[in-house]
Design a protein that fits this description.
Layout lengths: L5 H8 L25 E2 L15 E4 L7 E3 L8 E3 L2 E3 L7 E3 L6 E8 L14 E5 L3 E5 L24 E2 L8 E8 L2 E2 L5 E3 L2 E6 L2 E8 L22 E2 L7 E9 L3 H4 L14 H5 L3 E4 L6 E6 L2 E5 L6 E5 L4 E4 L4 E7 L5 E8 L2 E9 L1
Bound molecules: magnesium ion.
Length: 355
């Protein structure tokens, strides 16, 4: 009897198992034309939007000194009527300075008369760190793959809605970008995230970027510096830019430790804590009540639920979760006569009214 060699059996059974490298992704494929088109939204937000006082102005209508060509030479784009115009074939322009976490405001207009279709119509792009593109495209009545229309994270996330204005009208992107964080070994600790408002309308809501954006390719992250230039794409269309400014964002709140001083906590017996228990009259119709639950002293202000108090000395207590302190005034027997509650710059006295 003919028997199939064992190796052939193993080989044929592998057809039934999804090979790890051959699986299709669960998310949308890049540039899928079946991906639903975002709803159209019109916005009458006025432009230009003036830069706040702490902004770094990258283009004010005349000065292009903050920009360069890829090779470091002067930018090949031209200033026309207060706008920085992409020059087809002139190459991308890059900021001379590098930036990491930013709030970026940038205004742009697609060329008129509108020419071409799909990706060929008013195409440019804002490349955050030179790698992560927020697409610029004339997407007013122009069909293309939705992950490549205006305000898409190119090839990854279509905008939530299509807030595009017609070609020739000024439009704005307000972009909040958090750069990717890499570990010392080069692996990704935190992917980049981006929030975008297009003409004042939310179109990217903290979208987690997979890696550098690209046409056709799915590219993995590669470790890069914390600050890199922003670039504007030359995609062969004379797109206009103006009023470009950014605010550098503090990275500390995202990963820094709290800066408050922790105070040692005094260990007190239930008997000691009971001395503080009672009602205290403040400037409110309802009394403040201090009670004890097990080893924990609690203070109840009016209708609020009781808040936990931590003793630091016989006279100084603090709220456990809130930056408030309660300073007691004790009588000769060590029993509180009154306290002052310090919160948010206020000092609120209260007198003991009864046990
Ligand atoms: Mg583009």
């Amino acid at each position: 009897m003919h028997r199939k060699p064992i190796l052939a059996l193993i080989a044929s059974s592998s057809f039934l198992l999804p090979a790890a490298t051959g699986q299709e992704p669960l998310r949308w494929k890049i540039h899928d034309m079946k991906r639903p088109a975002p709803a159209k939204v019109t916005s009458s937000i006025p432009l230009p939007a003036p830069a706040p006082s702490d902004a770094v102005v990258l283009f004010d209508g005349s000065d292009v000194s903050k920009w360069r060509a890829a090779d470091g030479s002067d930018a090949k784009w031209v200033v026309r009527d207060g706008a920085l115009a992409a020059v087809p074939g002139g190459g991308a322009v890059f900021t001379r300075e590098g930036f990491g976490d930013i709030q970026l405001h940038i205004e742009w207009a697609a060329p008129t008369p509108a020419r071409g279709s799909g990706q060929g119509r008013g195409n440019s792009g804002v490349f955050l760190m030179g790698k992560y593109e927020i697409q610029v495209l004339d997407s007013h009545e122009n069909v293309t793959y939705t992950d490549g229309q205006a305000a898409a994270v190119y090839g990854q996330y279509p905008p939530l809605v299509n807030a595009s204005r017609p070609a020739g009208e000024w439009q704005a992107y307000d972009i909040v970008f958090r750069r990717p964080r890499f570990r010392p070994d080069g692996s990704v600790a935190q992917p980049a995230r981006v929030t975008v408002l297009h003409n004042g309308v939310l179109v990217q809501d903290n979208s987690e970027i997979w890696g550098p954006t690209s046409w056709l390719q799915h590219l993995p992250y590669q470790s890069h510096p914390d600050r890199l230039p922003i670039s504007l794409q030359d995609h062969g269309n004379p797109v206009l830019y103006r009023n470009i400014w950014l605010r550098e964002l503090d990275e500390e709140p995202r990963r820094g430790p709290a800066r408050h001083q922790t105070k040692p906590i005094l260990s007190m017996t239930p008997e000691m804590l009971d001395r503080y228990v009672g009602k205290y009259a403040q400037d409110s119709p309802q009394p403040t009540v201090i009670s004890r639950e097990g080893d924990v002293l609690k203070i109840k202000f009016g209708f609020l639920p009781p808040l936990e108090l931590m003793p630091h000395s016989l006279t100084e207590f603090s709220l456990r979760w809130t930056a408030g302190t309660v300073i007691f005034d004790l009588d000769d027997g060590g029993r509180p006569k009154s306290f002052v509650f310090h919160i948010g710059g206020d000092a609120r006295p209260a007198k003991r009214s009864s046990d």
